[in-house]
Amino acid sequence: MEKIKAWSKNLKRQIFILYFAYKDERVPWYVKFFTACVVAYAFSPIDLIPDFIPILGYLDDVIILPLGIMLALKIIPKDVLLECEVRANSMLENGKPKNWLAGSIIILLWIVFILWFIFKVFARWS
Predict the structure, then answer these.
(1) 54: which DSSP letter?
(2) How far apart are CA 90 and CA 99, in angstroms?
């Protein structure tokens, strides 16, 4: 169980490293785009594959998200990565900030997407 906790803590640290790398102007736009997608998915309260689906539900949490993080960390310039690691470690030691506005926007976007999808499905059936 301790290994899982350590793995989870390291994953959280890496997500914050990606968050800081996204904000850095030395990172190319396509790397920022990919990094933003990974960070947004990691912070999103809604999964691509819902967790209640047996076996597949945790696939994104255990395989897809770590692979996205690993790929993003590999394509970020090394000097930026080192600076972002220091910032992420410092932030995690001092306590992470809560951004209610960003969380609300993510939830609102998911609600709009779900409503749009439901509207399209019902429009097709009628």
Answers:
(1) T
(2) 18
For 111-124, the pLDDT digits (tens) are: 998 999 999 888 88
Tally of residues, the chain: 126
Rounded Cα distance between 121 and 118, Å, is 5
pTM over 0.85: no
Query: What are the structure tokens assigned to 72, written together?
Result: 């993003």
Same structural domain for residues 60 and 102? no
What residue type is assigned to position 62 of the chain? Answer: V
Q: Are residues 70 and 81 in the same domain?
A: yes
Q: How far apart are CA 13 and CA 93, in angstroms?
A: 11
Instruction: Quote the CA–CA distance of 99 and 53 in Å, as a whole number.
Output: 29
24 close to 87: Cβ distance less than 8 angstroms: no
